[in-house]
């Protein structure tokens, strides 16, 4: 049996942060991942997705400026952009493994299961550790209905050798919208089927409606209040059954994708054998990100039921917190700054801080600025129809509680709002700042 000071399950950003930080302090460290090292973001999510979006951004920009200086709208070469994407993906695992080797970290490439409170079965080996960290991330939700296995995953979408002529996405979250926008701009027919009344339910709905409008204008069919209840293979295509309170509908597509959410990847770890408490959101932890029921275990990233959002920077933050507490004993509580989140559609939709309804639930005395500003110069020069904002300001302190945007490059602008919320900048301080002009950031004072 191999023994370590620290053993980590999962080599995404949280696990990698913990492994390298603990090893740098002289602890013996082992790490395992049944998938290539790098985690979802680098290999199967944020990074490859953003590379592909880059090509559709060029096409979208050209289309918006056609007749205003641009004559030809380029086509996206799917094979070329996928090859470009793959160059980033292929480079990551060996780079990470080389770093582990340099830091003296033992590497495994197998699934793990708990045997006792501090021992694991890793592939065919048994491992014992003083501290075990669960950083196994998340994975696609299993579709329990008939034919659910026919639905491909987001990973499959990012590895398509050819883009199908028609695609259907199950679920109306950010994955569905981002991939639907990519596919539609590459010429595919796209349908999104969502069980709820509103898509993107965790975002400010006054802003979501503009994204819905842009999505439908792109030719994407958005079907709401409809549960997908079956998928069957018919004549080389897939027939998807959707039920609402009023009727049963059938949709056909060459490919169906499961974008119905990503639960934590913890339910195959035999957590009960190690007395590890958990919920459907992840491992139950205290303020130090330590298991509430097994002091030998910590958890970080998407596998954790914490206050952190399932975002890569949050996984890194939690990784640093866990590593510090393992190295020096529990002293560092998990603390979360404002966490900006973005739906990388075109236009992008971005959010940070409280929504209006949440601020009211917490009994803040607020002032709300909500406006559609397609007439502003930055929207007109880029020929973008959907440009709107909602900012929530606390009256007593005159500080920002939340900001919600849709429009060009809001994925960048939202970071300035996050900084203002964290530093508690007052509205008048922001209004009197000098921003470079004409930039998207220069619109911020007018949103307050």
Word description of this protein:
- By secondary structure, this protein is of the alpha/beta class.
- Helices cover 31% and strands 25% of the residues.
- It is built from twelve helices and 22 strands.
- Helix 1 (13-24) runs parallel beside helix 8 and helix 3 (46-64) packs antiparallel against helix 4 (78-102).
- It is globular, with a radius of gyration of 23 Å.
- The N and C termini lie far apart (61 Å).
Summarize the structure.
By secondary structure, the chain is an alpha/beta fold. The chain has helices at 13-24, 39-44, 46-64, 78-102, 154-158, 174-185, 205-217, 312-328, 356-361, 377-382, 410-423, 427-431; strands at residues 2-9, 29-32, 106-108, 112-114, 119-122, 125-134, 166-170, 189-193, 221-223, 227-234, 237-243, 248-253, 255-258, 278-279, 282-284, 297-299, 304-305, 341-343, 348-353, 366-372, 388-394, 399-407.
Q: Report the count of strand segments.
A: 22
Largest sheet, in brief, is: 7 strands, mixed
Tell me the strand percentage band. Answer: 25-35%
Distance between the termini: 61 Å
Arithmetic mean pLDDT:
97
Q: Shape from CA axes?
A: globular
Helix-residue proportion = 25-40%
Structural class: alpha/beta
Number of helices: 12
Q: pLDDT under 50 segments (min length 5)?
A: none
Radius of gyration using CA atoms only:
23 Å
């Amino acid at each position: 049996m191999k023994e370590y000071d620290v053993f980590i399950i999962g080599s995404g950003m949280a696990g990698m942060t913990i492994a390298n930080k603990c090893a740098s302090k002289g602890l013996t460290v082992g790490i395992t991942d049944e998938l290539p090292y790098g985690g979802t973001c680098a290999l199967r999510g944020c990074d490859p997705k953003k590379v592909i979006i880059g090509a559709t951004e060029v096409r979208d920009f050209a289309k918006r400026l056609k007749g205003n200086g641009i004559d030809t709208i380029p086509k996206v070469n799917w094979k070329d952009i996928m090859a470009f994407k793959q160059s980033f993906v292929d480079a990551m695992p060996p780079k990470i493994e080389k770093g582990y080797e340099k830091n003296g970290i033992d590497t495994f490439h197998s699934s793990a299961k708990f045997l006792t409170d501090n021992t694991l079965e890793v592939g065919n080996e048994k491992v014992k550790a003083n501290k075990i960290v669960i950083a196994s991330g998340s994975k696609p939700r299993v579709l329990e209905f008939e034919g659910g296995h026919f639905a491909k995953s987001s990973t499959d979408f990012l590895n398509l050798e050819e883009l199908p002529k028609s695609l259907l996405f199950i679920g109306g979250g950010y994955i569905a919208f981002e991939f639907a926008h990519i596919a539609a701009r590459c010429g595919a027919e796209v349908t999104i089927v969502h069980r709820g009344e509103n898509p993107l339910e965790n975002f400010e709905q006054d802003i979501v409606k503009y994204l819905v409008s842009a999505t439908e204008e792109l030719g994407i069919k958005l079907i709401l209040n409809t549960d997908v209840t079956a998928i069957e293979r018919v004549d080389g295509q897939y027939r998807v059954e959707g039920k609402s309170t009023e009727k049963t509908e059938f949709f056909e597509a060459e490919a169906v994708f499961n974008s119905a959410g990503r639960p934590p990847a913890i339910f195959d770890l035999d957590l009960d054998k190690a007395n590890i408490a958990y919920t459907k959101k992840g491992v139950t932890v205290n303020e130090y990100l330590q298991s509430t029921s097994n002091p030998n275990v910590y958890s970080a990233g998407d596998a954790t039921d914490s206050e952190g959002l399932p975002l890569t920077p949050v996984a890194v933050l939690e990784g640093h917190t866990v590593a510090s507490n393992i190295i020096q004993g529990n002293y560092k509580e998990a603390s979360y700054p404002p966490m900006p989140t973005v739906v990388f559609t075109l236009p992008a939709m971005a959010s940070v801080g409280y929504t209006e309804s949440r601020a009211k639930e917490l009994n803040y005395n607020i002032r709300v600025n909500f406006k559609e500003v397609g007439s502003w110069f930055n929207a007109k020069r880029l020929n973008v129809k959907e440009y709107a904002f909602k900012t929530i300001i606390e009256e007593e302190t005159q500080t920002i509680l939340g900001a919600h945007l849709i429009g060009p490059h809001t994925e960048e602008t939202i970071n300035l709002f996050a900084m203002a919320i964290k530093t508690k900048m007052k509205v008048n301080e922001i209004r009197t700042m000098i921003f470079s002009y004409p930039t998207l950031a220069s619109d911020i004072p007018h949103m307050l």
